[in-house]
C-alpha cells in the first residue's frame, strides 16, 4: 500500500461508529483504506469493507511503522473517548511524517489538546451535526451546504419564487448575489445537469448547485421569498 498508487491512501484508527463509517465511505469511493483498532471484533466487522483491516495499537510507534503508516496521505484518529490514546496516536503519526492528521474529540478541552499535539484538524461530530441539523431547520431554500473553506461553500438550493419564470441571464445571479451556478436538477428530476442554458426559464421546484461565499448564501436564504 505504498505511494505508487495514484489515489490518496487513508488510514483510520479507531473503528467505532464514527471511524468505521469514514473507513467504509472512503472505500466505497474507491480509496485505499487501512482500518486499525485494538479490538479484534471491530477489525473483523469491517474487514470485508476496506482494503485492509488490522488489529494494532496505534499508541505503539513501532507497530505503526510496521504497518507503513508513514506512507499514508491522510490518517483519521477516531478514538474520541480515550484522550491519552488519541494524544499518543496523533503524536506518533505526525512524528512519522503523515501530512494530514484528522482527529475526533468529544469536547472542547479534547479539541484544544489534540490541536496542540499536532492534529491538523479536529472534529467534534456530535456538535457539528447538531449545528448542521439546527441550521437545516431554519433554512428556506438551502437543501444542503458544504463548506469548502472558511469563506466559500457549495450549496444545493431550491429556486426561490422570485426566480421562477425568469432566466439566469435576466437574474444576473453572479453580479447581484455572487453566485456561480454549477448545475441544475430540473423539477421532478434527480439527474444533475452541469450545463445550464442562461436563457432557460426557471421552473418552480428546480434545484441549483451553486458556489458562493457562505455568508452571502446564508444571507440570501434568509432574505429571499418562499
Describe the structure.
35% of the residues lie in helices and 25% in strands. The chain is of the alpha/beta class and 226 residues long. The strands form two sheets. It has a six-stranded parallel β-sheet with strand order 3-2-1-4-5-6, sandwiched between helices. Helix 4 (83-95) links the parallel strand 4 and strand 5 (100-105). It starts with 8 loop residues before the first strand and ends with a helix. Mean pLDDT is 89; it is low at 1-6.
**Strand and helix order:** EHEHEHEHEHEHEEHHEEH
Query: Poorly predicted ranges (pLDDT <50, ≥5 residues)?
Result: 1-6
Task: Classify the fold: give the CATH topology of the largest domain.
Answer: Rossmann fold
The beta-strand count equals 10
What percentage of amino acids are in beta strands?
Answer: 25-35%
CATH superfamily of the largest domain: NAD(P)-binding Rossmann-like Domain
**Biggest β-sheet: strands ordered side by side in the sheet:** 3-2-1-4-5-6
Distance between the termini: 51 Å
| Number of self-contained structural domains | 2
Judged by helices, strands and strand pairing, the structural class is: alpha/beta
What's the alpha carbon Rg, rounded to whole Å?
22 Å
The biggest sheet amounts to: 6 strands, parallel
Mean pLDDT, all residues: 89
Helix content: 25-40%
CATH class of the largest domain: Alpha Beta
Total helices: the number is 9
Note the overall shape: elongated
CATH architecture call of the largest domain:
3-Layer(aba) Sandwich
Amino acid at each position: 500500500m505504498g505511494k505508487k498508487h495514484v489515489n490518496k491512501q487513508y488510514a483510520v484508527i479507531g473503528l467505532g461508529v464514527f471511524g468505521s463509517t469514514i473507513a467504509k465511505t472512503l472505500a466505497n469511493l474507491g480509496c485505499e483504506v487501512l482500518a486499525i483498532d485494538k479490538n479484534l471484533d471491530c477489525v473483523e466487522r469491517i474487514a470485508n469493507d476496506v482494503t485492509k483491516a488490522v488489529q494494532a495499537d496505534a499508541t505503539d510507534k513501532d507497530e505503526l511503522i510496521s504497518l507503513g503508516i508513514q506512507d499514508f496521505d491522510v490518517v483519521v484518529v477516531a478514538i474520541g473517548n480515550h484522550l491519552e490514546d488519541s494524544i499518543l496516536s496523533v503524536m506518533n503519526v505526525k512524528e512519522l511524517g503523515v501530512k494530514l492528521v484528522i482527529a475526533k474529540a468529544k469536547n472542547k478541552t479534547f479539541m484544544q489538546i489534540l490541536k496542540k499535539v499536532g492534529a491538523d484538524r479536529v472534529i467534534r461530530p456530535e456538535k457539528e451535526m447538531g449545528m448542521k441539523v439546527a441550521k437545516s431547520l431554519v433554512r428556506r431554500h438551502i437543501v444542503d451546504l458544504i463548506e469548502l473553506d472558511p469563506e466559500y461553500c457549495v450549496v444545493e438550493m431550491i429556486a426561490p419564487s422570485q426566480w421562477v419564470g425568469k432566466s439566469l441571464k435576466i437574474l444576473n445571479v453572479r453580479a447581484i448575489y455572487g453566485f456561480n451556478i454549477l448545475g441544475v436538477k430540473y423539477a421532478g428530476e434527480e439527474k444533475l445537469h452541469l450545463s445550464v442554458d442562461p436563457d432557460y426559464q426557471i421552473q418552480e421546484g428546480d434545484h441549483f448547485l451553486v458556489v458562493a461565499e457562505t455568508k452571502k448564501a446564508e444571507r440570501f436564504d434568509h432574505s429571499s421569498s418562499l
